[in-house]
Amino acid sequence: MLLEVEDLKVSYGDFEAVHGVSLGVEEGELVSVIGANGAGKTTVLRALMGLTMPKGGRISFMGRDVTRMEPHERARLGIRMVPERARVFPELTVRENLLMGAYGIPKDRGLKERLEWIYRLFPVLEEREGQLAVTLSGGEQQQLAIGRALVSDPKLLLVDEVSMGLMPKLVDQVFQVLRDLNISEGMTILLVEQNALASLGISHRGYILQTGRIEISGSSQELMADPRVREAYLGI
Ligand code: ATP
């Protein structure tokens, strides 16, 4: 396993939001964690990135225990997060936003080639290179946020609710980009999502998170065929 999470517990003061979550992601996989509002998706992701320290459990990445590691150390090991609602720097240009993703990475590590690679993946970012990020559409900002995470050549991409606030057409477009990234570039991706249909549609496997617990897990086909998932998450 590239990422292995065992019995993860996360609290905000006295309130335990995540009650012992275990999950794993193999190299080359695209895995979804599906949950409704408030299920704890963002909390799990922030704990994986080190932005929120867990109260209990263990997170290992490439065989190393990273449970107590600072976010920048995890980033250096190759974990990167695309935050909810893209969170690009609005008053910086597209190119400057991308360069922010390379912060702390030695310049000689092929930065120029990586920017070219990102521009090939997201041609619109090259077209808008000198434009302020605030002037991009929601879908373009999501692409920029993904591009910014990719500049450092991560080994694991954590993606928080990429579909939020996007029109259905843009949701399809952004999910297609993630799928291509996984299939063509071999990028390992962990998605957390409310949009079960779109995310299971591109994932190998998934976990259903309900009020801080994993209730169901399986291949995407198994989950899409599960009556509980169909009723509660697919509206069928
Ligand atoms: P959403 O889809 O609405 O973003 P989510 O599944 O990502 O939801 P979280 O944001 O992880 O859910 O929140 C899980 C629970 O923890 C919720 O009950 C939320 O109110 C609570 N929570 C989240 N952040 C904090 C915080 N900083 N302080 C206190 N409680 C919090």
From TrEMBL:
Residues 3-236 form the ABC transporter domain. One of its GO terms (molecular function) is branched-chain amino acid transmembrane transporter activity. The keyword Acetylation does not apply. SMART domains: AAA. This is ABC transporter related protein. One of its GO terms (biological process) is L-amino acid transport. It holds the Pfam family ABC_tran. Keywords: Amino-acid transport, ATP-binding, Nucleotide-binding, Transport. Belongs to the ABC transporter superfamily. It comes from Thermanaerovibrio acidaminovorans (strain ATCC 49978 / DSM 6589 / Su883).
